[in-house]
Design a protein that fits this description.
The protein has 556 residues and is mainly alpha-helical. The protein is built from 18 helices and four strands. The chain has a two-stranded parallel ribbon. A two-stranded antiparallel ribbon has the order 3-4. The radius of gyration is 66 Å and the shape is rod-shaped. The N and C termini lie far apart (200 Å).
């Protein structure tokens, strides 16, 4: 058979293969494979399209038809999805998706042949939809490509609520078509940062790194926020009744930063901050476990401060104030008796004696001489120990000291009437006699103005003693000082007794009047009845100037 004859036979076979249902033997294997491709089955096997309608069979060849050939019959099928490819990428032809070649995997439903990963202009399918046909959502020849098949056509159980947002809510407002569902969290901040009440990136922090950790997806309303206890289980809270809601202290969209305690608790706090967290939480840890009271014990910070007996810190300290001043009013809360007895005295200021009273009340108080130095330094032996007379004087300085007779028994037993109060003559601390004007003259002013009193108060002790054992035991005779008889009648018998005419050392003058004389000289009662004084004729001196009789004291 000639070569031309063989070509005619082959052409007949090809024509039969393209237009018929039989598969004659002798047709090349490549032609068999191409015949099973998606495009050829739709056009040749299932349809009634002849090969020559698409292929140029001139000279017995089967050259591939041009990419624009499909539009000759399918002018209404515009490739919407792929027409939106980046300008740098060529728009794919119909054959690239519908498959007319040896690769039988090329078919419209096998999008993942190209979109198996995101690269260049190709976008991979989202994870949750990876097993679904792309055509369930995409309409490659419809504009827009996702209509009428929208997300809600499949996700009927998703009721979308998004706070008080106005207008319709579309899934694509938050979800990008080819991303994992959880990745929508990343878009929250970009939208909420521009809201009237902006929520910035500070809302995300360790442990709260996704918005949907607290906000239920598709239910972004306040009453759908997950309770904090969902994650923070068994979290102790100080004063739980007052702090029942975590958001009363924590600002959820500001990295859960706690609000200042002063925003609710207006009380001023002068206590120094015991920790870097601030004054309030230093004493009131909000989430401390096992805290029995509202605040930690003072000893947690002040462990080295001695206690004031059995007193609690709050008995003296206001926990929100600074260090208190130790005033009598403060001490009186516990030491009312001691404060009452010192009121109005020099001991009213407790710190005057109790310098370390606040936390060392058992410390010995300073000696009395610390304040009463002049008294203690000049005190006579036996009087230097204040407690010997005053007992414990600090809290009762006005209490009467014991009588001097407790120690000075001899003096008390020999003191004449009116001299029992030792302090009227003696300084009680030095024991010295007081000034003259304060001693004898202070009480015996009348006696000091006449007779021997005019000689001065120091002369009193010549005749008198205030008490024993020293000094004269009794008033001495006049002759102790007035020795020798004076001239004149002093030398005559009967006139040698001083008390016959003189009535004591404090008489203003001797009694030389007529009435006194006739007391003894009764026989002279009628003698010179007109004379008022006998001494006018019967002198008791020698008449010389300066020899006036010194009045002797009358013995007692």
């Amino acid at each position: 058979m000639t070569a031309r004859a063989w070509l005619l036979v082959a052409a007949a076979v090809v024509v039969a293969a393209c237009g018929g249902t039989e598969d004659p033997a002798g047709v090349p294997a490549d032609w068999k494979i191409v015949r099973e491709s998606f495009g050829h089955r739709v056009h040749v096997v299932d349809g009634d399209v002849k090969c020559r309608e698409c292929h140029d069979l001139a000279d017995g060849g089967f050259s591939p038809p041009p990419a624009t050939l499909c539009a000759r019959c399918h002018a209404d099928q515009v490739p919407t999805i792929h027409a939106e490819a980046p300008a740098t990428a060529p728009v794919p032809s119909c054959q690239e998706c519908h498959g007319f070649g040896r690769d039988l995997g090329i078919r419209p439903a096998s999008c993942m042949r190209c979109h198996n990963q995101t690269q260049g202009d190709r976008v991979a399918a989202i994870e949750i939809h990876a097993g679904a046909p792309c055509a369930d959502c995409h309409r490659p020849h419809t504009t827009p490509s996702l209509q009428p098949r929208a997300c809600g056509d499949c996700h009927l159980d998703v009721a979308m609520r998004h706070g008080d947002r106005e207008g319709p809510i579309d899934c694509l407002d938050c979800h990008r078509t080819h991303e994992r569902a959880a990745e929508a969290d990343g878009t929250c901040a970009s939208c909420h940062a521009t809201q009237p009440r902006p929520v910035t990136a500070t809302a995300l922090f360790k442990g709260h790194d996704r918005c949907t950790g607290c906000h239920t997806p598709h239910q972004f309303v306040t009453d759908a926020v997950a309770p904090c206890a969902t994650c923070h289980r068994d979290q102790p809270v100080l004063a739980a009744a007052a702090h029942a809601a975590c958001t009363s202290c924590h600002q959820p969209h500001q990295a859960a930063a706690p609000r200042a305690c002063a925003s609710c608790h207006r009380q001023a706090v002068a206590h120094p901050a015991p920790s870097a967290a601030g004054a309030c939480v230093g004493c009131h840890p909000p989430h401390a476990r096992g805290l029995a009271q509202l605040a930690v014990a003072c000893a947690q910070c002040h462990a080295d401060v001695p206690r004031h007996g059995a007193a609690a810190c709050r008995d003296c300290h206001d926990p929100h104030a600074g260090k208190p001043a130790l005033t009598a009013a403060l001490c009186q809360q516990c030491h009312a008796d001691q404060v009452a007895t010192t009121a109005g005295t020099g001991h009213a200021a407790c710190l005057g004696c109790h310098a370390d009273a606040a936390h060392r009340p058992s410390s010995a108080p300073p000696a009395c001489g610390t304040c009463h130095r002049a008294i203690v330094m000049t005190a006579r032996p036996g009087h230097a120990a204040c407690a010997s007379c005053h007992g414990e004087p600090r809290h009762d300085p006005g209490r009467a000291a014991p009588p001097c007779a407790s120690c000075h028994q001899a003096e008390a037993a020999t003191a004449p009437p009116g001299h029992q109060d030792c302090r009227r003559c003696h300084d009680q601390h030095t024991g010295q006699r007081l000034a003259v004007a304060t001693t004898c003259v202070g009480c015996h002013a009348a006696q000091a103005a006449v007779g021997h009193g005019t000689l001065g108060a120091t002369a009193c002790q010549s005749c008198h003693r205030p008490h024993g054992p020293d000094g004269v035991a009794r008033i001495p005779t006049c002759t102790t000082c007035h020795q020798g008889a004076l001239p004149g009648l002093h030398a005559s018998k009967g006139h040698d007794r001083c008390d016959g005419c003189h009535r004591g050392g404090h008489d203003p003058a001797p009694h030389a009047d007529r009435a006194t004389c006739v007391t003894c000289h009764t026989d002279q009662a009628a003698h010179q009845p007109t004379a008022t004084a006998c001494s006018g004729c019967h002198p008791f001196t020698d008449g010389r100037p300066g020899t006036a009789a010194v009045l002797p004291s009358r013995p007692r």
